[in-house]
Amino acid sequence: MIARTGVLSAAVLIFAFATAPAHGKPVSLLPENSVDAHSMIMEPPALGTPRFHEEMSTVLWLQETRTPEQIEFVETTLNLERFAPVVGEAIFEVDGPALKALIDTAIDEVRSDYDAVKGVYDYPRPFEISAAVDPVGDARPVASYPSGHAIRAIVYARLLSEVFPEKSDDLMDLANRIGHGRVVAGVHYPMDVSQGQKLGNAYADAIVAGPAFQTSIADIRSPEVL
Fold first, then answer.
1. Helix 211-221 and helix 96-121: axis angle, to 10°?
2. Residue with the larger pLDDT of the pair 12 and 79
3. What is the band of 15 on the pLDDT scale with cuts at 50, 70, 90?
4. What is the spatial distance between Cα 199 and Cα 201, in angstroms, rounded to a whole number?
5. CATH of 45-221 among 3.30.465.10, 1.20.144.10, 2.60.40.10, 1.10.260.40
6. What residue spans define the domains of the chain?
7. Are 194 and 145 in contact (CB under 8 A)?
8. Which of 149, 160, 170 shows the shortest CA–CA distance to 77?
9. Distance between CA 164 and CA 157 in Å, rounded?
10. Of the candidates 86, 76, 101, which has an alpha carbon nearest to the alpha carbon of residue 15?
11. Residue 194 pLDDT more than 60?
């Protein structure tokens, strides 16, 4: 059993060190073609247009006003552990390792889908366009639109909320702040985040509605007592 500790929450320990069950092929959670991303999100503005300059102006303004606390927040890695302090010792009420394996599978499938979407738009990051942008955190020159961090944060929060509904508000608040932080960091435009969050909710809707997820969650909520 994992010891309860005042230094790290039980959820951090489980989410960090649990391994996936070693039996069978991982179940598919995101039905194929269940999310039509291109009909759901808006077309990003052409570079140099007034709408583009509005987006860039917001990035630059947030850069000028960001605080050391905000920088520390945006430099924190996005993974399941990020949500562990919100879950806390409620993890003892469920099958934690199975939950981690399930959500990791969902995130991998979501990432594969949205990577294809990002490739279609191939929109440059703010710091690639303007030398005035000083990015912090995970600043890689890959396609900007829509924000993968914003998508994944929403999916993490939504799926965890299915297991811990009493923590849904706090989980979603953290997910939204993670998305906003990507603009503060200078690595995304506001539209990347707003449209990414829209997609994140669509992916979560498709996963949660599927029988594979519902069956797995039922088992996770009622772990076998050894």
1. 150
2. 79
3. confident
4. 5
5. 1.20.144.10
6. 45-221
7. no
8. 149
9. 10
10. 101
11. yes
